[in-house]
Amino acid sequence: MKIRSILLRVFGGCLLVSMSAATVSAQNQIVVRAQMDSAAIMMGDQTTVRLEVSQDKGKFVRLPIIQDTLVAGVEVLRISKPDTVDLKNNRIQVNNEVLITSFDSGLYYLPPFKYVIDNDTFETQSLSLKVVPVPVDTTHAEFDIKGVDAPPFVLWDYVPAWVIYLLIALVVIAAGIYAYWRWGRKAKGGEAAAEEKAIPPYERAIQALHELKDSKLWQQGQEKAYYTNLTEILRVYIDQRFHINAMEMTSTQIIDTLRRNEETKAVNQQLRDILEMADFVKFAKMRPLPDDNEQVMRYAENFVEETKPEEKAPEQPAADGTAPEKPE
């Protein structure tokens, strides 16, 4: 134990400089930081890498993509969910933790963790981890080889064949009942879908937005449900109005696609603000202000109104009562 303590102190002191790293963007006031609880561990022990990013509210952040191993020999055991802290002064901090371990001794250099904020990439500096081998006590006697264990009990080895056939028959009957129930439900669902299709996308979207507003979800502390329903309404409207598969697209893909559409250029920035705020609430657990919740609803209603299809005016008969001539 004394040897272990001395080794940990020596290596921990030598590598203390590499335990934390931060990259600061003075222009955008963005700070990314990574620090490790311990820079030296014994083989098989664990340590935690703590990641944090500080930024202004309203910016979209993509957290680092972490695989099963940081480098060869250093394994990832668990990645915590992001935790958002309000720093006041229109600033937030997103924290998450990565639990790592190693079963091979040596000195490992962990690569920088990359954050993507809006269209910029920020990196932390690399960290260093020293893995110390476990000392072996050769004074104790060796243990003998473990004896042979009895085979495990398997229930199916003792079940008669007729019982298995009976279970198969029951499964087939249950599958037939389920197929019949599903077929009848699908037929009824087709009729309901036909009725719903008769409603124009604009009217359906406006009605859904009014129902969402009346539900008062964010006033009851259900901000995530509020933004999830809001973005789903807009995605369905965009899908039906512009024939874009918005339900299967990311927020960035939707914005890039609609940017090339003349009918949506005027309100594309408002849609971008809605989708970015929704991503922060759903994935970074941000708690928006009441004014933000009301503003995204106004943006959504304005987006639907501004992209509403123009109604064609009915053709007026000519002065002599004859039908107007159609242009060639």
Describe this structure in words.
By secondary structure, the protein is α+β, with helices and mostly antiparallel strands. It contains seven helices and 13 strands. Strands 1, 2, 4, 6, 7, 8 and 9 form a seven-stranded antiparallel beta sheet that branches. It has a three-stranded mixed beta sheet with strand order 3-13-10, with helices on one face. Strands 5-11-12 form a three-stranded antiparallel beta sheet, with no helix packed on it. A hairpin with a 4-residue loop joins strand 1 (20-25) and strand 2. It is flat and about 90 Å long. 19% of the residues are buried. Residues 13-22 have low confidence and may be disordered.
What's the helical proportion of residues?
25-40%
% residues in beta strands: 15-25%
Mean pLDDT: 80
Please report the total strand number as a whole number: 13
Provide the succession of SSEs: HEEEEEEEEEEEEEHHHHHH
The rounded Rg comes to: 31 Å
Secondary-structure-based class equals alpha+beta
Low-confidence stretches: 13-22
Shape: flat
Largest sheet descriptor: 7 strands, antiparallel
Helical segment count = 7
State the end-to-end distance: 97 Å
